[in-house]
Every structure is written in C-alpha cells, then in structure tokens.
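Standup notes, structure subgroup. Blocker cleared on the calcium ion input:
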Amino acid sequence: MRILVIEDETPLAEQIAERLRGEGYVVDLAQDGPTGLHLAQDYPVDLGIVDLGLPGLSGLELIRRLRADGNRLPILVLTARHQWQDRVEGLEAGADDYLTKPFRMEELLARMNALLRRAAGFAHPVLTAGPLALDTRAKRVTVDGAPVSLTAYEYRLLEYLMHRPGEAVSKTELTEHLYPDEADRDSNVIEVFVRRLRQKLDPDGRLQPIETQRGLGYALRAGLDEGPP
Ligand code: CA
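Run returned:
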C-alpha cells in the first residue's frame, strides 16, 4: 500500500514516514499544499494523511479540490488539539477521519487500517475469501485456519490483492504500490512473488486463489468462496 503524507512539520513527517516504512508501506512525503495536491492527483496512492495547516494551500482546500475532481482517495486529517472546528470542517470538506495531535503511532496505524479496509468494502479487520483469511492487525494469514508463513513482500502483495477481490491488478500497478524505489521495480520480481505466494497458500493446487488474467494482470479469484474452480 502506498501512503501520501502531507505534513509541513519535518520532524513529525519524518517520524510518520519512518514508522510507516517499517510497517511495510511505501511512503511519499509532501511538505506543502501544492506538492501534496500534485502527488495526490498524479500518483497511485492508496491513502492520504493530511495536516490541515500547510503552506501554499491549506489541507482543507486541498481536500475540497480533490473531492471536486471526483478523487475518492481515503483521507485521514491531522488536526491540532482543541480545534474542534478544524475537525468538523475537515470532515465536511470530504476527509474520512481525523486524528488529533499529538497522537500515538499505533493509533495512526489503526485508523489507517480501518480506512483502507472501509475503502475496500470490508467492515472487519480480518479479510476473508473462501478458506483464506488475512488479519490486517496482526499481519497474519491462514488457510482453513492453518497459519501460512509469508515474507513481508509476499504479505503485502496478498494484502493488496485481497483488498480488490476479483479485480485484475497489473504488474505495473503492483510494483508502483509495493516498491518504494523505481530502480527496484521489475515486473519479473512480481512474477516470482506470485509464484511463491501460490505455492505457500495452495501447495497442492486445489484452491488456485490467484488467477492470471492474460494481458491484465493478477486477481484474487472471485469464486473463492464457492470452492475449487
Ligand atoms: Ca502544519
């Protein structure tokens, strides 16, 4: 998942970015409104964390412009303490949730998780597809209740697909959302991760959870709830 952090307080921005990267997110940073707006409009981001007091263009105005463009990026707003008007205005402008400074990183992560799930249409922190379950809080995966040990990259890849069940996701999209550096982006690497994921999730080939859709990419099989293909 790719997160855009728009925050002009450098120490806080760096602290958030460091923690999110440690959690396996790809992070883009913007320290003023116009840069943030540009990144939100033109980059493949999955969630925005937006401070309201920003130079160049306020967070509120940035959110209003995005929503006016029809951009539905999930947005978590950061507000100063005691400024309840900010929260109300932020939500009215189209933000999805808010967090009051100072906050604990665990709280930020929990809110982000909830927004990402909600955007994907899941109400519960455990995403399921047939026998497959992915716990977004514990970052654990099970098949028929049995734990499956995945590397961080394998987990992220599966998490991304499980947020879009039945939807074909191209290798380009996967590399953009899963890799921080363009230099590391090689679609052959995605093929290797998909192959390993399939082996780990479905060693006997009974389930076939990840489909290859020719020319389109990979998809979590839509009929997974109905059983083997
Ligand atoms: Ca600020």
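Discussed briefly. The chain has two domains: 2-120, 126-226.
Next: hand off to the docking folks.
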